[in-house]
């Protein structure tokens, strides 16, 4: 149920005390009166939670919902918890240490007007618009679902959760539950769902500046061959799972239509 909430921004935090206040400020500056920010702190051992509480109080915010896990479950499960608690028609993901670019929120909502999933580009904070080596997402790729899936398999599509969102209709039986064997790359899973379901839109806008540092929860740098091959095997498994869920959703709709 949306409870009248238009959009939910889901953030997972862990050891984020150094940067989370700046990120919260950049997000709430763009939220409308019917939006919310859902934060799940993954049992941080530092004062991340205290910084969040202080920031929310200083900003006088009533649109921020903060909860904590009982134990450290990892960022994928923390994001899943946040998504389950989100009430909005549109759901967006946010890392704890980035900065949203002006106009991002409304641009992403507009991108979901006719698609289940939206994905946009990012730049590197403090580097004057510089990006990682990945080629940027382009609008003309949006309908090239199989090409996008192939690019995912070879690691050539920059799908990053901090620059992604989806409609509520994509959650149950689609994005959630996140497969239990997935311990990283939840953003790739969301992108796979959008492409397998043939409903993803690429925005060419840069919607977030990513902060790169030694404490990033998502892995940085080039990985070994064995790690890469294992990841690709997981991606192939995810594609099969997304296709299975899509078939199940189509079959259920057909049964409902026949019953009515």
Question: Mind explaining what this structure looks like?
Answer:
The structure is a single chain. With 260 residues, this protein is an alpha/beta fold. 37% of the residues lie in helices and 19% in strands. The protein has helices at 20-28, 48-59, 75-85, 104-111, 145-153, 186-196, 225-259, and strands at residues 7-13, 35-41, 64-68, 90-94, 99-100, 117-124, 164-167, 200-210. Helix 1 (20-28) links the parallel strand 1 and strand 2. Helix 1 runs parallel beside helix 2 (48-59) and helix 5 runs antiparallel to helix 6 (186-196). It is globular and about 50 Å long. It starts with 6 loop residues before the first strand and ends with a helix. The model has no long low-confidence stretch (mean pLDDT 91).
